[in-house]
Amino acid sequence: MIISIEGIDGAGKNTLVRALTSRIDAATLTFPRYDTSIHAQLAARALHGQMGDLVDSAHGMATLFALDRYGAREVLDRYADSDEVLLLDRYVASNAAYTAARLKDDAAFDWVYDLEFGQLGLPVPHLQVLLETSVDEASIRAQKREAYDATRTRDAYEKDGELQDRTFAAYQQLAAKQWASPWLTSSDADDVSEHIIQVISS
Fold first, then answer.
1. What is the rounded distance in angstroms from the CA atom of residue 94 to the CA atom of residue 31?
2. What mean pLDDT comes out for the span 190-194?
3. Based on the structure, what is the number of domains in the chain?
4. What are the phi and psi torsion angles at 181 (to 5°)?
5. Which positions, given as ranges, span the membrane (predicted)?
């Protein structure tokens, strides 16, 4: 079973994943994989102004993030038809939301779906969870994280408040459409945890 935790930067995805692993037996994987993936590393450099005009291309950046996930396909496939649980901190929906927000066009939903689930053959998650943390609260968290952790410097996406607003709206559209697979949405992390545990137990 693959469960992806989604939300804008600072929504609390990593915190929720850690809380869940303290209660259930689950493997975890965080995207982008900045420590191990050359595609994620190139995307990070672009987001910090080190790759010329690459960051200006919404499709180019989306492709880098998609190829990062493709590099983990062997791991993802192992959990797709397994009784074991894999919790993902971001997955394909993140690419769909950010790309649509950058282009201001929800046609990006289908483009990302075809790229990642179609051409790249990534497994569809069994459940997608949207943490509906407000944009203002998420921004405050991201700024505090940056202040206390030198390795978590905010990138161009995280610093763009208008982009975060549009991304949040795009995520809500994806959840409302039940895009790709079932979605659970809530601003209450405890409520989300209980629901996820119930899904796994059943």
1. 9
2. 87
3. 1
4. -165, 175
5. none
